[in-house]
Structure to design on (445 residues):
């Protein structure tokens, strides 16, 4: 392969001329270039180095340049680069066994997809087939993907371009305790309030109409919202009461991000279906999946599973998945993420204490968000929901980026989710940049 583009200028100009970029205003924004990466760092076309403090799209858990995973992909490409997803091949069988064995013990089989969006779409299809119902519940502050069905499942504004949506997709409010309209005595009281609302909503939609309730186990891109105590258990109870499939979207939270293999392991709950992608290969090759309970798996023993894409369960993704899981196991990286998360939590609490602009910090493992406000007492958000005409948040992200701290924001929150391989020293140095930038935001209030 010979590349004719060598300088950063050529790469950017050609890209702006020929590429339509995801999630971007095409004309006015200049894409960041990326030339290479190592560990938790990547560098751009001018040689500037960045701490990757969002692990790209919260998927690069093992960082850049992992030779074990690279080698596994190379070897697989030489051995067998492609096979239709309905064939049994060694890496596909082995990865399936590893995934099911690491999942909660009620799980029986896995259906491999291409990524997270189609994992969620297949989860919906499976829930509809198994229950014979068509209504699907999901939450307003959720992101479940960008393909048409997954975007309909999504609750936040990234859904709007797909509206009017697919009939039967119903939204409910999140247990966003920091911004609750009513004060609660404790977390259980908050859970009780939100669950009661949800149960009523299910009944009003029809006691035997709902196929699935889909939740991100911990809300990710919409601000790392950790469910209050008892909330997920309550969702399980509602699902059991009405014969509904409980689906946990673990696309962002699975594979170690929260210091556990799956975020659901932080709670004493067993869903019927778990979807995943991202951290199973950390982006080295694409693959995602839908893990289903033993009961659901057996439903298909004598029925046709009408799901699949040409590239689902791709051999390169399977090989990368095996090598990544082995890497997690050999290095103890997931336990390390939990431990490092304690340090991250301490740093975040200090930032909250110190800065007038920090209203809330939420964290678990190496998964966290900083919520910015104009006023700590009133909790008035730094920017209103879906309304930031002065681009306040992108200016803050731009300042962080200029100082070598790469991450992204969503509404009035900043994501902090570094690769799980980050050292204590790297975490402290990177967060010192955040501290400085938040100081400047304080001055602007
Ligand atoms: N679900 C969640 C919770 C996600 O965070 C994402 C991606 N950010 C998706 C689904 C969609 O995954 P993909 O981009 O791999 O299609």
């Amino acid at each position: 392969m010979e590349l004719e583009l060598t300088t950063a200028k050529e790469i950017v100009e050609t890209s702006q001329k020929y590429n339509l970029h995801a999630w971007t205003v095409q004309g006015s924004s200049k894409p960041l270039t990326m030339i290479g990466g190592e560990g938790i760092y990547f560098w751009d076309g001018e040689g500037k180095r960045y701490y990757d403090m969002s692990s790209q799209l919260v998927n690069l858990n093992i960082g850049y340049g992992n030779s074990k995973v690279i080698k596994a992909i190379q070897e697989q490409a030489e051995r067998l680069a492609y096979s239709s997803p309905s064939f049994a091949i060694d890496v596909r069988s082995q990865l399936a066994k590893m995934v099911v064995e690491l999942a909660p013990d009620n799980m029986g089989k896995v259906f491999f997809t291409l990524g997270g969006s189609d994992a969620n779409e297949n989860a919906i299809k499976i829930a509809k087939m198994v229950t014979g119902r068509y209504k699907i519940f999901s939450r307003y502050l959720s992101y479940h993907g960008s393909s048409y069905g997954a975007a309909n499942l999504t609750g936040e504004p990234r859904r709007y371009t797909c509206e009017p949506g697919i009939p039967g997709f119903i939204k409910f409010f999140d247990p966003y305790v920091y911004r609750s309209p009513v004060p609660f005595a404790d977390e259980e009281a908050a859970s009780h309030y939100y669950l009661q609302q949800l149960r009523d909503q299910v009944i009003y939609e029809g006691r035997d109409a709902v196929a699935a309730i889909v939740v991100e186990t911990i809300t990710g891109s919409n601000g790392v919202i950790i469910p209050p105590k008892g909330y997920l258990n309550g969702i399980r109870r509602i699902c059991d009461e009405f014969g509904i499939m409980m689906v946990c979207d673990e696309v962002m939270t699975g594979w170690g991000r929260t210091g556990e293999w799956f975020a659901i392991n932080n709670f004493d709950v067993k869903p019927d279906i778990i979807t995943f992608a991202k951290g199973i290969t950390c982006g080295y090759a694409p693959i995602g999946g839908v893990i289903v309970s033993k009961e659901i798996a057996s439903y298909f023993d004598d029925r046709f599973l009408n799901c699949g894409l040409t590239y689902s369960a791709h051999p390169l993704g399977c090989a990368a998945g095996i090598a990544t899981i082995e890497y997690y196991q050999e290095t103890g990286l997931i336990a390390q993420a939990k431990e490092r998360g304690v340090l991250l939590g301490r740093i975040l609490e200090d930032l909250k204490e110190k800065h007038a602009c920090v209203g809330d910090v939420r964290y678990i493992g190496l998964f966290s968000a900083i919520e910015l406000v104009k006023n700590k007492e009133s909790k008035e958000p730094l920017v209103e929901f879906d309304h930031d005409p002065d681009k306040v948040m992108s200016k803050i992200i731009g300042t962080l980026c200029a100082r070598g701290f790469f991450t992204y924001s969503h509404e009035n929150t900043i994501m902090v989710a570094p690769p799980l391989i980050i050292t204590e020293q790297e975490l402290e140095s990177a967060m010192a940049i955040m501290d400085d930038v938040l100081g400047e935001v304080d001055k602007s209030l």
User: Anything to note?
Assistant: The two ends are 52 Å apart (CA to CA). The domain at 68-331 is CATH 3.40.640.10 (Aspartate Aminotransferase; domain 2).
